[in-house]
Amino acid sequence: MNRSAKTLYIFVDESGNFDFSLGGTKYFIMTSLSTTDPYSIASPLVHLRYNLLPNYAGGKSFEDNGYFHAAEDAQAVRDAVFSTIMKNGKNMRIDSVVAQKNKANPVFYSQHLDLYKKMGEVLLKYILVRANWGSYNHIVLVFSSLFDRKKRGILKQAFKSIIKNLSSKPYSLYFHDSKFDFCNQAVDYFGWGIYRKWESSDTRSYNPVKKLITSEFEIFARGETKYY
Question: Of 3, 14, 90, 94, which alpha carbon lies 20 to 30 A from 20's?
Fold first, then answer.
């Protein structure tokens, strides 16, 4: 890791939905990509993006969207993105918190933001307490989910409190559309791979990058009650 870097960047993405029934996803997962060198992640993906533009090499989804999105990209594009990340993934840490939804207390069924807070606190503990980042003097936290104005306000308040409890460093918190940030697109890819592994035992998008994944913490693992 880059010991001379002065800022720790944390990019957070989510997978799954908040349908707490048999018709919803089995899991809700928060994944983070943290790094002191976002340029080493973003720059190679910029090169890949432009290399895919001639002759529509990125496929229909890339033609329509123009940015990397694991759930919609063609498999050839996924393979290229994963290969690019693996070649340049020396200055990053990937952590995820996994919630098996039918083990979640029913209070979370309508209080989604409380689940965000609970999972977010665990996620940030891995990044800010357990990881050895060396010297940095600022924290930048970027959510790839936009939310509405009210939810943003609640989450900002919650996560600012979490950061203050875990670190004495100054911080900045943002909600950015992932299509404008290559590090957000990278964490989307990691989140997709982790989610597919847990949700459907599909490891095609997990195996290529599993060496870079530091933690997958199952937050309700000790619970034995299944509510549906």
Answer: 94
